[in-house]
Write a structure and sequence with these properties.
By secondary structure, the chain is mainly alpha-helical. The chain is built from 4 helices and 2 strands, in the order H-H-H-H-E-E. The mean pLDDT is about 85.
Length: about 100
């Protein structure tokens, strides 16, 4: 092999290593919850040293536990009987009008 071929091979290997180092934050953070955002930051702002460092710190930061969403319990609370203030009688739960006097609740 001549010197030009060796230089091209070395330059190709060096270029691949530079690409690997450039996308190192994305590679580290690929299994994170915010992996797409880490990749976007790395791709768009990684050329600046500050953007690359922010992406690397974000990728190395431990994921926080997700906030538990409200999950209703299996047993719903029993409906309470409705009290009519007009006639003073109780009616079945879920009604909108008193069955005795017809007044709305």
């Amino acid at each position: 092999m001549d010197n030009v071929t060796l230089i091209r091979i070395f330059a190709g290997i060096l270029f691949l290593c530079m690409i690997y180092v450039y996308f190192l934050p994305s590679i580290i953070g690929r299994k994170k919850r915010d992996s797409l955002a880490i990749f976007a930051l790395n791709l768009l702002a990684g050329w600046s040293l500050v953007g690359w460092i922010i992406a690397l710190v974000w990728a190395l930061k431990e994921d926080q536990a997700p906030v538990a969403a409200f999950q209703p319990t299996i047993m719903a609370q029993p409906l309470q009987a409705l009290f009519c203030s007009s006639c003073g009688k109780y009616s079945q739960p879920g009604g909108k009008f008193c069955p005795s006097c017809g007044q709305p609740f």
